[in-house]
Design a protein that fits this description.
55% helix; extended; Aspartate Aminotransferase, domain 1; 2 domains; 6 helices; alpha+beta; 4-stranded antiparallel sheet
Length: 136
């Protein structure tokens, strides 16, 4: 790479943005290969579990989502702060109940079904949401 200091600094920033600064990238690549080669066939299971989760969460007080809007294994739910408090607090209370979810901006959270999530986990997740929505 040749250029001004600013140009080289920007090029390095962009390289890192695209993963060029990662160490042990082979470990991540191996996980991706396993997912593509061995887990792809079970994606319909994850999608069905997420559809079940979405339909059950959609009926709860303080949860806004369209159950039909998630054709994959990723669900974004908007939580009413008047019921659940700030999303960060709701995420912490879910974590206390063994439910790992992520922030999705504002009052939205992200839930994902995958190989380690079974039917009992979906039931436990719905129960945790039910408990939190009834608590306020």
């Amino acid at each position: 790479m040749a250029g001004s200091k600013a140009f080289v600094a920007e090029a390095r920033r962009v390289r890192k943005l695209f993963g060029g600064g990662m160490r042990q990238a082979g470990v991540l690549a191996a996980a991706a290969l396993v997912a593509l080669e061995e887990e792809r066939g079970r994606l319909p299971e994850d999608h069905a579990r997420l559809a079940r989760l979405a339909s059950r969460l959609a009926g709860l007080r303080g949860v806004s989502l369209d159950p039909g809007a998630f054709p994959t294994n990723i669900l974004i739910a908007d939580l009413d702060p008047g019921v659940f408090g700030p999303a960060t607090d709701a995420l912490a209370r879910l974590r206390e109940r063994g439910i790992l979810a992520g922030a999705a901006g504002g009052s939205s959270i992200r839930l994902v079904t995958h190989a380690d999530v079974g039917d009992a986990d979906v039931d436990r997740c719905v129960g945790a949401f039910r408990e939190l929505s009834a608590g306020n």
